Amino acid sequence: MIKVLVVEDSPGLVHAISMKLKSLNFECLVATDGEEALLRLEEKPDIVWLDIYLPKMSGFEFLKRVRESKEMNKLPVVVVTNSAGEEMREELEKLGILDFFVKAESRLEDIIGRIPKHLEENGINKN
Question: Which of 77, 80, 104, 106 is the most exposed place for a label (fewest CB within 10 A)?
Answer without folding.
Answer: 104
